[in-house]
Design a protein that fits this description.
The radius of gyration is 22 Å and the shape is globular. About 25% of the residues lie in helices and about 30% in strands. Helix 3 crosses helix 4. Strand 7 and strand 8 form a beta hairpin. It has a twelve-stranded mixed sheet with strand order 7-8-9-10-11-1-2-3-4-5-6-12. The two termini are about 35 Å apart. By secondary structure, it is α+β, with helices and mostly antiparallel strands.
Length: about 300
């Protein structure tokens, strides 16, 4: 996120609907003298500042190099279209090493991806019928995890890695919605807990979600069929943070009542802290088939064909 975008967001006021837990104690400072009830304007201002502070903490941490174990999921259903992805994710170290295990294929046609820290290739472990694509257990392809920290709106280098990329995309869609005309309709609900952790409930428009471009892979004919009302649909987003403001879970889940109903859900949840032992042992070079750069597009196309 650029400095100018951050300043704009700090200046922008947002609608905050609720506050619970220990933070409610602070509202006593917003009471009008001689009245038993909090001053509404002061209460609203306090909660707006709280929401901004929690989101600022999240944006400062979400795209850095976390050592986490988590689960990631992306689902889209519209008529005959069904797309489901479920992965367990390990991120470790700086530079980051990552390992995502594909849990979304009932028939075993899985693609696990191991990215070793600092290398320019990814190792794929193919399951089921996909094993027929190579003579060895592992396949090496050009890495898909290339960070562009100078890109406008970048939240940090970790946003290219599995799991965290979903959270970064949802956060970006929320911020785009808040800065657009739909932002006036997108409220923010903040709940604080006794341990200092929090839950934020907000939303992102379908248009902002599609603008991210990498969250859902929807067919072009479906996207082109959306009306202006469809694109303005606000999809609920829930963000859980720990006491330090770090990410615990982020999820977008909602329905677009278009001509063909579209149901979307995506999220990432942190379940623990990773260690080096959570990463797989790197295979021997004898157990790896290198796919030439010129053949990699066709290789990925073949994987998609076999998984349909």
């Amino acid at each position: 996120m650029t400095a100018s975008a951050s300043m704009t967001r700090r200046r922008r006021r947002i609608g905050v609907l609720a506050l619970a837990g220990t933070a409610a104690l602070a509202l006593s400072a917003c009471t009008t003298p001689g009245s038993a009830f909090p001053d509404a304007a002061a209460q609203q201002s306090y909660m707006q500042d709280l929401a901004e502070a929690r989101l600022e903490l999240l944006s400062a941490q979400i795209g850095q190099a976390p050592d986490v174990i988590g689960s990631a999921y992306v689902h889209a259903v519209s008529g005959d279209l069904e797309s489901h992805e479920n992965d367990s994710v390990v991120l470790f170290g700086d530079p980051t090493a990552s390992f995502s295990q594909d849990k979304g294929s009932a028939d075993g046609d899985t693609v696990d991806i191991y990215h070793q820290a600092g290398v320019d290739y990814d190792l794929l472990l193919l399951g089921g019928e996909l094993k027929e694509l190579a003579p060895t257990e592992w396949v090496a392809v050009q890495t898909q995890y290339v960070a562009d920290e100078d890109a406008e709106g970048s939240l940090g280098p970790a946003c290219v890695y599995p799991g965290i990329s979903i959270a970064c995309d949802i956060y970006s869609a929320v911020e785009t919605t808040r800065s657009s005309g739909d932002g006036a309709l997108s409220s923010v609900v903040v709940s604080m807990r006794n341990d200092g952790s929090s839950q934020i409930s907000t939303s992102a428009s379908l248009e902002s979600v599609l603008a991210v471009g990498t969250l859902f892979d929807l067919p072009d004919d479906l996207v082109s069929s959306f009306s202006e009302d469809d694109l303005a649909t606000l999809l609920p987003v829930t963000i859980f943070q720990n006491a330090e403001g770090g990410l615990v879970k982020m999820e977008l889940s909602g329905t677009v009542e278009s001509e063909t109903k579209l149901q979307l859900q995506a999220g990432f949840e942190v379940s623990g802290t990773s260690t080096l032992e959570d990463l797989p042992t790197a295979p021997s070079g004898f157990d790896v088939t290198v796919i030439p750069a010129a053949d990699q597009a066709a290789f990925w196309d073949r994987i998609e064909e076999l998984r349909k």
